[in-house]
Amino acid sequence: IKYDAYLQKNHTKCQSAIKQLEQNSDLTKTENLQELIHCYYALTSSLIEKKKRDEAEESIKKGKELIETLMKKEPTNALAYNYRAVFAGYEIALNKAKALTKGRSCINDLNKAYQLAPNNPQIIFDKANSLYYPPKIFGGSKKEALIYIQKAISIYEKQNKTHDNWIYLQLLVLEGHSYELLENDILAEKSYLKALKTEPNFNLVKNNLYPKLKARMNGTSNEKA
What pTM value is reported for the model? Predict the structure, then answer.
C-alpha cells in the first residue's frame, strides 16, 4: 500500500496502511513499531506536499509519540534517531521559525543515526535530503547530496531491494534532478530511464521529469530544471 501511495501521490492509501497496522500489529515488537512510524514518515511528507497543514500536524504528533516509544525501548536504535530528525524537519517545513530551535538537534540526530548505521540506505537517503533541499546559505549542497544519494542507490542494488521500494525510486529522482541542476543532462537521462525500467508506471518521471528533460535536450524547450 505504501508503495502504491507513493506512485500515485495518494495519501489516503497511506492512511489505510496505518489503520491496518494499528489494528492488526503488535506494537510492542520493534519491527512493527518501526513499520508504523515509517507509514507516518511517508504520510506526513505527502500531506506537507499537498499543503494539508492540519492533517500534517496531526500526523507529526502521532509519529513523534511513536518515535519516543521506540527510543525508550531501544535508546541506540539508529532509525529512531533518523525518524526524530526527519519529523523535526517536517515541523520546520510547516514553520520556518522552528529552525532556530530545532535545526541543530535535527542535524545532530541525523549525524547520530549515520554514525550508528552508516550503511543503512534509508538513513543515507535522509542525510542526502538534508543536503539536497536547503539553500547553500543553510548548508545545502547538491554535489555533496549526490554522493549520499549514489551510496544509497548502490546499497539497495547490491541488496537486491529495488522492487516495490519507493525510497529507491525517490533516490533515482533525486539523482536525475541533481544531474540536471549540475547541467549534466546525459547522466540525468540515465537516472530517469533506470527509474522507468524499475517502475514503468512511475508517473512523476514518465509524464513530467523525463519529457521535460528530453524536450530540453532536443532543443524544443528552454525550460530549466
Answer: 0.90
